[in-house]
Amino acid sequence: MARIVLFGAAGVLAAVLAIAPIASARERSIETGVLDELNYARTQPQAYARVLQDVAYRSRAGGAYDDPAALREALTFLERQPPLPPLSADDALGQAALAHVDFQARDGSVGHVGPGGETLSQRLRRYGAFASLMGENIAYGYGDPREVVSQLIVDSGVPGRGHRANIFNPSYREVGIACGPHPVYRVMCVTDFAGTLMRR
C-alpha cells in the first residue's frame, strides 16, 4: 500500500490508496467526479455528512478514518455548514492545475511550488487569467473522487483544516481540476479555486 499525502495551504495529511495513468478516460472521469463531489458537499453539506459517515464506515484503508476526532469534527462541521452555490469549471484554472500535474509527474516533487518557484498565481497568468483570491488543494494517492474529496474534508493532521476551508470558502466561484500519475504516490489530483476571475 502507498503512503498518501495531501498538501494544502495549511499542511500535510498521511493515509493510503491506489491509481491510474494521465489523459486516460479514467482520469477525465476522476476530474468530473471530483467536481461533482465538491459541488455535492457545497450544496448539500448535511447530506454529505451521511456520505462521509458511510465512506468512513466502509473504509479499511486507515488514514483520516483512523483519526476519529478529526472525523467527528468534520461531521459536526458539515451538519452546521450552510449550503453554498456550486463551483463552475474554468478552463484557465484547469490548465493551471494540469500544468502542475505534468510538472510533478516528471520530477516526483510534491507541494504547491512549480519550476523556478512558480506559484499558482503565476501559473494562472500563463493561461490568460488572474484573481485576487485563489487557493489550491493537492491530493496524492487517491484514484477515487469520493476518497479525494472526503479525505480533504476530514483534513486529518492539517492545522486549521486548510483543505476543508478551501472547499467551503463562500468566495470561491470557479475551479479547475486535473488528475494524473505521480512517480512516488502513483496518482495526484490538483484542485485550483478562485473567486472572480479576470481575463487579459
What report would you give on this structure?
The protein is globular. It is an alpha+beta fold. The model is unreliable at 1-23 (pLDDT under 50). 43% of the residues lie in helices and 22% in strands. It has helices spanning 25-43, 45-58, 68-80, 91-107, 120-126, 145-154, 162-167, and strands at 2-8, 11-17, 88-89, 129-130, 134-140, 174-182, 186-194, 198-199. The chain contains seven helices and eight strands, in the order E-E-H-H-H-E-H-H-E-E-H-H-E-E-E. Helix 1 (25-43) packs across helix 2 (45-58), helix 1 crosses helix 6 and helix 2 runs antiparallel to helix 3 (68-80). The longest helix is centred in the N-terminal third of the chain and has 19 residues, at 25-43. The strands form two sheets. The protein has a six-stranded mixed β-sheet, sandwiched between helices.
SSE topology string? EEHHHEHHEEHHEEE
Instruction: Return the average pLDDT rounded to an integer.
Output: 84
Which parts are unreliable, with pLDDT below 50 for 5 consecutive residues or more? 1-23
Shape: globular
Measure the end-to-end span: 45 Å
E-strand count? 8
Helix content: 40-55%
The largest beta-sheet arranges its strands as 2-1-5-7-6-3
Radius of gyration: 15 Å
